[in-house]
Design brief:
198 residues; alpha/beta; seven-stranded mixed β-sheet; 21% strand; EC 3.1.1.29; tRNA binding; hydrolase
């Protein structure tokens, strides 16, 4: 990265409020919070962005960490406001979100793609007018057949899952560090180091 680039925006998706802390749908928040702590960046409420925002700098480039407080299904409103205000290139956006189609703990990076039924990603696509933005998908596993998907994603991780999730958060933070350093090359790095068969 160099100082001529537009700022970088890394978005963690989740729902605000104590009742949603450590729920499956909030894994984007969890990873982003852990990364902010490592970077020494603090989140602050920004009403104009409908979000919590933390800021740091890497090699002369501003890096914004965003946690929308719109609730998951309206996340795009917050993302659009930040993109417009700071004039962020769409190629410099990375969204961290849960994925029920990946086994718990698996990470998958994509430079673009469909929302795959994820309402937060759908809303971001709606407000940006494109699906051409990067996303880091964090596997949270799938519900049993008789279990409602909406209920499943809003439940907290089980005791058994928590150990795996701690390791996943660590891997997610490691990935974000490498994303800062390598940019587009990170796609190959994650294939080599993070993606495993479920």
């Amino acid at each position: 990265m160099n100082s001529n680039q537009s700022p970088l925006l890394v978005v963690g998706l989740g729902n605000p409020g104590a009742k949603y802390v450590n729920t499956r749908h909030n894994i984007g928040f969890i990873v982003l919070e852990a990364w902010a702590e490592k970077l020494g960046a603090s989140f602050a409420a920004k009403k104009q962005f409908l979000a919590q925002l933390a800021t740091t700098t890497h090699q002369g480039v501003k890096v914004f960490l965003l946690k929308p407080e719109t609730y998951m299904n309206l996340s795009g409103e917050s993302v659009r406001k930040v993109v417009d205000y700071y004039k962020i290139d769409l190629s410099n956006i990375l969204v961290v979100a849960d994925d029920v189609y990946l086994p718990t703990g698996e990470l998958r990076y994509r430079q673009k793609g469909s929302a795959a039924g994820h309402n937060g990603l759908k809303n971001i696509e709606k407000h940006l007018g494109t699906s051409e933005y990067s996303r880091l998908k964090v596997g949270i596993g799938s519900p049993f057949e008789e279990e409602d998907l909406a209920d499943y994603v809003l439940r907290k991780f089980t005791q058994e899952e928590q150990e795996k999730i701690r390791a996943t958060v660590h891997s997610g933070v490691d990935f974000l560090d490498q994303y800062l350093e390598t940019g587009p090359r990170v796609n190959q790095i994650i294939k080599e180091n993070y993606e495993h068969e479920g």
